[in-house]
Amino acid sequence: MSDTAAIVLAAGLSRRMGDLNKLLLHVGEDILLAHVISACAAATDHQVTVVTGHQAQAVIDALAPASVNVVHNRQFEEGQMTSVESGLRGAPKAETYLIALGDQPLLTAGDLKELLAAHQAQADGRITVPMVGAIRGNPIVVPAAQRALILADPVNLGCRKLTRTSPERVHQFRTANRSFIADIDTPEDLAVARSYAISKEYNLNVAL
């Protein structure tokens, strides 16, 4: 493993899930957010940083007794980039930063290690973004030098804006692994993820 710190974004409003905070819903035996944290913890080198915002105390309570570094984003309603900035500022210093969404429960530690290995071997100082066909996935991997650039002007140099307007700063990790693009936004997404979790347990075949 390289010197990598994981940041898990868990501040969003979950608007498409109605009144429910999707990160606190169960997929298999654990809540959505805990799946992502566990995978990140097993694939990286530092205590996982969790960025809270919406229903912050409920998120913290649900994670107990897990050992995580909690960073609260008071500006979470202003968009995801504010959480990225909070996470990059609050995470332990490292050579690289794995920035993950809290709603991708199908990702495994093995998936993340494969992403990090590709970054270490091929990125050459660029931000690594998983690509499944033409679809941009998550997590992304940000080198320390790019972290400094983003934090110098987070409004204009947010991760998504930077990777889209400056393709020379991006290393595309090409993969057929759809776990990198399987996130949970709606009740229908949640039902599919739960079916997939059951299928893995019983060796069934459920398409993502």
Topology:
Elements: E1 4-10, E2 26-27, E3 30-31, H1 32-43, E4 49-52, H2 56-63, E5 69-72, H3 80-90, E6 96-101, H4 109-122, E7 127-132, E8 135-136, E9 140-143, H5 144-152, H6 159-165, E10 170-174, H7 187-202
Parallel strand pairs: 1-4, 1-6, 4-5, 7-10
Antiparallel strand pairs: 2-3, 6-9, 7-8
**How is the biggest beta sheet arranged?**
5 strands, mixed
Give the overall pLDDT as a whole number: 87
Q: DSSP helix count? A: 7
CATH class: Alpha Beta
Outline, from the CA principal axes? globular
CATH fold field value: Spore Coat Polysaccharide Biosynthesis Protein SpsA, Chain A
Question: What's the short story on this structure?
Answer:
With 208 residues, the chain is α/β, with parallel strands linked by helices. It contains seven helices and ten strands. 40% of the residues are buried.
Describe this structure in words.
Helix content is 37%, strand content 20%. The chain contains 7 helices and 10 strands. The relative contact order is 0.18. It has one domain: Spore Coat Polysaccharide Biosynthesis Protein SpsA, Chain A (Alpha-Beta Complex), CATH 3.90.550.10. The chain is of the alpha/beta class and 208 residues long. The longest helix has 16 residues, at 187-202. It has helices at residues 32-43, 56-63, 80-90, 109-122, 144-152, 159-165, 187-202, and strands at residues 4-10, 26-27, 30-31, 49-52, 69-72, 96-101, 127-132, 135-136, 140-143, 170-174. The model is unreliable at 201-208 (pLDDT under 50). Strands 5-4-1-6-9 form a 5-stranded mixed β-sheet, sandwiched between helices. Helix 1 (32-43) packs across helix 4.
